[in-house]
């Protein structure tokens, strides 16, 4: 699923424990529409010196401090490089040539950060701030830089047992050592928020600029005023090359480290708080990139997101979606604190090869990898739930034969995995300027869904939002890097 820079794009699925289905998945989808002046005025609170606000559709923010890359790169980043184009390889080598620091504070568990800061209490105070989108380097620094944030309001949001505690100069210096080029800051250090747009339904898209000038998007999707889902990116670009997806056209520029993944949550928490959006209760790794190609950093981020003392999300509410480059892709996330989704698109090998040209394995081989991974998970607690995602294209994969093939394919998973809760999620194709692919009619989608349900496979249809602003599923892609420094 992928984005564009000046007309930033995004679209997503929403996991919800409150769903009426046994699988626990509810669809909600995104985004980009002009944001009003009144909406932008509060958002500017995250800038150290807010820009003037003229009546415009969006707000650009460029006054944050220079950023610094930290955390580790994933070993998965170097796998299967034969899938990359020559230009992708050059970009990847140029980026990874930069010396990356050990993971930063926002990627550390309490005990890890305690060793850095010199005490568990100090680590908890720092995480009290990170978890609500406040950078402790700003909150406790000699110069308090909170923008429109009110000091007393923030203080009252902290746990009562630590509300009056502070981080001293020595502790702040130790925290700064995590991000030495940015004064110890996540905000403006790991990434800076450079653009925000908000749709009429309050769906809010954030563009983050990383230290090397590359950009990623993350999207906040409010759901009926009760909760929000955050769609997170795991890479800048993607090497899987799905022919119906705008991100696939970018190629992979590089993977995000865990700090950069978690910075998306940090900024989203801040924006939700400042703009009265429902708090984030769900995460979907369905933004830019293929999570399986960056599994180490995605898993590190998921562990932070689901730790009670940190971002405090339930494991079943963090969903990782993969196209499954290899059968082993599922194993990588088998023990991770996440729910799984598989971007299937077609179960006929010839059709899928057309849609996902980098695929090297048959669907039977990939399915076995999924089955093995699900069987290794506990049978209780919805741990064996799986969503099969299908981007439907007229005359390509929307025939009744394709539906029947999907029924047979899905039933093997259901039969072989005790306790499996499987749902097929149909995603009508969103235009990316492709010469061949077209969106199926609503009647065709409904007919496909009815066929699957008649065959005993629970099926839902993803509602399209933001396609008029190239912000729907499959339309996401940011501007390519100018040139990455060697």
Radius of gyration: 22 Å
**Strand coverage percent:** 15-25%
Looking across the biggest beta sheet, what order are the strands in? 1-2-3-4-5-8-9-10-11-12-13
The H/E string reads HEHHHHHHEEEEEEHEHEHEHHEHEHE
Apparent shape: elongated
Question: Which residue ranges are poorly predicted, with pLDDT under 50 across at least 5 consecutive positions?
Answer: 1-75, 77-101, 465-472, 480-486
Ends apart, CA distance between termini: 29 Å
Q: Please summarize the sheet with the most strands.
A: 11 strands, mixed
The helix/strand class is alpha/beta
Mean pLDDT: 77
**DSSP strand count:** 13
Tally of separate helices: 14
Query: Helix fraction?
Result: 25-40%
Task: Write out key terms for the chains shown.
single chain; 11-stranded mixed sheet; two-stranded antiparallel ribbon; 13 strands; 29% helix; elongated; disordered C terminus
Folded structure, characterized:
With 486 residues, the chain is α/β, with parallel strands linked by helices. The chain has helices at residues 37-43, 86-96, 110-117, 120-130, 136-139, 151-157, 169-176, 258-275, 295-305, 328-332, 349-355, 363-375, 400-416, 442-454, and strands spanning 59-60, 191-198, 204-210, 215-223, 227-231, 235-238, 251-255, 280-285, 318-322, 339-343, 385-392, 421-428, 459-461. The strands form two sheets. It has an eleven-stranded mixed β-sheet with strand order 1-2-3-4-5-8-9-10-11-12-13. Strand 9, helix 10 (328-332) and strand 10 form a beta-alpha-beta unit. It is elongated.
């Amino acid at each position: 699923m992928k984005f564009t820079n000046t007309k930033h794009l995004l679209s997503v699925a929403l996991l919800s424990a409150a769903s009426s289905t046994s699988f626990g998945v509810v669809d909600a989808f995104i985004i980009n529409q002009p944001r009003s002046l009144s909406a932008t005025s509060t958002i500017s609170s995250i800038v150290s010196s807010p820009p003037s606000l003229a009546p415009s559709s969006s707000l650009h923010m460029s006054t944050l401090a220079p950023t610094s890359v930290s955390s580790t790169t994933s070993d998965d980043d170097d796998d299967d490089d034969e899938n990359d184009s020559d230009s992708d390889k050059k970009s990847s080598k140029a980026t990874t040539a930069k010396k990356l620091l050990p993971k930063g504070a926002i990627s550390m568990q309490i005990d890890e950060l305690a060793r850095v800061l010199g005490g568990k209490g100090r680590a908890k105070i720092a995480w009290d701030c990170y978890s609500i989108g406040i950078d402790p380097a700003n909150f406790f620094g000699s110069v308090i830089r909170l923008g429109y944030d009110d000091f007393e309001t923030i203080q009252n949001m902290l746990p009562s047992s630590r509300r009056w505690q502070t981080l001293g100069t020595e502790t702040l210096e130790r925290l700064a050592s995590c991000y030495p080029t940015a004064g110890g800051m996540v905000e403006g250090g790991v990434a800076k928020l450079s653009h925000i747009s908000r749709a009429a339904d309050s769906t809010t898209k954030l563009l983050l600029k990383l230290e090397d000038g590359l950009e990623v998007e993350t999207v906040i999707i409010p759901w009926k005023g009760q909760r929000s889902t955050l769609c997170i990116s795991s890479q800048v670009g993607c090497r899987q090359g799905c022919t119906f997806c705008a991100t696939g056209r970018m190629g992979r520029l590089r993977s995000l480290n865990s700090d950069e993944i978690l910075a998306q949550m940090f900024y989203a928490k801040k924006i939700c708080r400042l703009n009265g959006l429902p708090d984030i209760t769900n995460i979907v790794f369905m933004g830019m990139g293929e999570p399986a190609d960056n599994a180490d950093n995605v898993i590190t981020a998921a562990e932070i997101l689901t730790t009670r003392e940190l971002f405090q999300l339930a494991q079943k509410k963090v969903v990782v979606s993969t196209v499954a480059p290899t059968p082993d892709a599922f194993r990588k996330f088998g023990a991770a604190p996440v729910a799984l989704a598989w971007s299937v698109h077609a179960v006929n090998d010839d059709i899928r090869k057309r849609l996902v040209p980098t695929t090297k394995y048959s669907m039977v081989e990939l399915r076995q990898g999924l089955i093995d991974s699900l069987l290794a998970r506990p049978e209780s607690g919805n741990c064996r739930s799986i969503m099969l995602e299908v981007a439907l294209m007229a005359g390509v994969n929307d025939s009744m034969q394709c539906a029947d093939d999907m029924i047979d394919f899905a039933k093997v998973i259901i039969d072989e995995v005790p306790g499996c809760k499987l749902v097929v999620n149909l995603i009508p194709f969103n235009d990316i300027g492709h010469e061949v692919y077209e969106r199926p009619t609503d009647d065709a989608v409904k007919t496909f869904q009815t066929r699957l349900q008649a065959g005993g496979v629970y099926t839902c249809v993803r509602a399209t939002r933001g396609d008029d602003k190239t912000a729907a599923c499959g339309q996401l892609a940011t501007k390519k890097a100018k040139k990455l420094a060697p």
